[in-house]
Amino acid sequence: MRAAPSSGPGAPSFPGPARGRLESVLPARLVGHGRRPSWQRSRLRRLLSAGLVAAAAYLALSAFLPGGPPRDLPVVVVAQDLLPGHVLTPADLTVESWPRDLGPDNAFSDPVLLVGRTLGAGMSRGEVLTAARVRGPGLLTGAGDGLVAAHIRLADPAMAAVAAAGDHVDVISSAGQVVAADVVVLAVDTRSDGSSGWSGAAASGPSGGLLAAVGAAEAVRLATADPSGLSAPTFNVVLKAARH
């Protein structure tokens, strides 16, 4: 008696009706005796070959794609939000690596150089510390020729909580004379309690003040506002409208 085709070695284990349906869909060479294992191996080889070709293409293209700029420039940034007049400590500072082309001018790379220095303006966490951010000659960075930094004692200490670095102000003496017009605030003093925010309570201790960039003639008028020399003169300041 002749054996059924499905009983031969290596034949697919499909019953007769199922085999007939496969033969109607697939080419005969894929469903014959011993074809199923061969077909699976061939398909696996094709998948592996396609994966290897894709990986080789990616590696070849990545060699020509421009990468990000190297981050090899150390810069000092503040590790937390800080108020104007804050004296910097090691805990306030951290070092990050920046792309050399993006590093700001006059940035510090060594935090040791900043410990003990006083901030001339408030800073937010992650901001880069530059010479213009700390009190000293750096505060005049970008100022016009002939300008100097002058300290102005305020008759109303509350103005120290209103003015901020970068504001333009007029400075008025106790006699009602404008001794310095449209000068730029470089830094604002903190109050004696270490805060700089607005408070409705009367401030204790010495009057607040601010540093401003003034010309030589204005600096002389500020210094001689009280010709008696019996007390340090104090001034009122009025904020100017922002320039556009």
Look at the structure and give the mean pLDDT: 75
- The portion of residues assigned to helices is 10-25%
Radius of gyration: 39 Å
Tally the helices: 4
- Work out the strand percent: 15-25%
Question: Which secondary structure elements does this structure contain, and how are they paired or packed?
Answer:
Layout: H1 16-25, H2 35-62, E1 71-78, E2 93-99, E3 148-153, H3 159-162, E4 168-173, E5 178-188, E6 209-214, H4 216-223, E7 235-239
Antiparallel strand pairs: 1-2, 3-6, 4-5, 4-7, 5-6
Explain what you see.
The protein is α+β, with helices and mostly antiparallel strands. Helices cover 20% and strands 20% of the residues. The chain has four helices and seven strands, in the order ααβββαβββαβ. The chain has helices spanning 16-25, 35-62, 159-162, 216-223, and strands at 71-78, 93-99, 148-153, 168-173, 178-188, 209-214, 235-239. A hairpin with a 4-residue loop joins strand 4 (168-173) and strand 5. The protein is rod-shaped and about 115 Å long. The protein starts with 15 loop residues before the first helix and ends in a 5-residue tail after the last strand.
